[in-house]
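Everyone, study these two lines:
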Amino acid sequence: MAFEAAWNKRGCRCDESEKRPEGRDTQGLARGYCGLCLICGEPGHTRPHPGAVEFTGSWCDFHYGVLAVTHPLAPVGTFVWLAVIAAVIFTAGQLMR
């Protein structure tokens, strides 16, 4: 039951692949995965893009986390990009003195 709750927290389609395993079997996916990572090809999960983009793809947990931090339209990514831009502006201001 706890494992099923983890799938639901991901927002992926593992529940659908468990109900219809024939689709999972044709892709050669292990049980507990519902897609192949678009970046590395490892087993992953099919879920919505972490940013404000209308795109659904498959990512392994590592690459989904990287995308959530680096994409400028993702909640965490927005903060990271704003912090980097602020640091560049501050550094440029200090160098121009």
Q: What stands out?
A: Residues 1-7 have pLDDT under 50 and may be disordered.
